[in-house]
Amino acid sequence: MTTTHRWVWRNAVAMAASGLAGMAIAQPYPAKAIRFVITYPIGGGSDFTVRPIAQKLSERWSQPVIVDSRPGGSAMIGTDYVVRSPPDGYTVLLSASSEVSMNVVLFKKMPYDPVRDLQPVTLVGTTPPILLAHPSLPVKSVKELVALARAKPGALSYASIGTGTPQHFAGELMKTTFRIDMVHVPYKGAAPALIDVIGSSAEALGNRQKTDIEKYRKIAAAAGITPE
Hints:
The protein is built from ten helices and eight strands. It has about 230 residues and is α/β, with parallel strands linked by helices. The protein folds into two domains: about 15-115, 3-Layer(aba) Sandwich (D-Maltodextrin-Binding Protein, domain 2), CATH 3.40.190.150; about 130-225, 3-Layer(aba) Sandwich (D-Maltodextrin-Binding Protein, domain 2), CATH 3.40.190.
């Protein structure tokens, strides 16, 4: 497979459209529906990101742009599907950092090579991670969460959108930095993780989308994490 075999890193639209426009000179494009693959379940951050993109591309191209959710395997199932699809520009990937960078250092064997098999187009956007907790948890800040975790080592759990994701790394970094013991509970995306945090099956969640706070107001935000 060549570097022209596939398309997008996480979050793409403007340059993806202009980049594909050059193909129309040689052949009519797009002449059929385009499949936009996301590697996490419907209802999570990737879904919120990709749907307005798909709608605008569909309007511009006068062709259906189908959002196809293929979660699982630390985001490698959906990515591998894109890698194995025909290299004709009709299968596009909305990728997070897990699929193209973190998995490389976590897994000895991957079904694809992100450098060889994926062609980046453009960055759509970035969002700072936010630490969320169920309102029943008696904490209102990271300081209080750390104090509670230290008082009850191993008793608290934190959810992530999957093993090897930025949320997982952030949780482990928090544990190492503050010398606390919390149990990691990986999910196949933000939507199922949020459902369990709402139901108190997991006490805390590291997530990336502000829309999740707006959608699940039963959860209290303990802190936002930014480079500053």
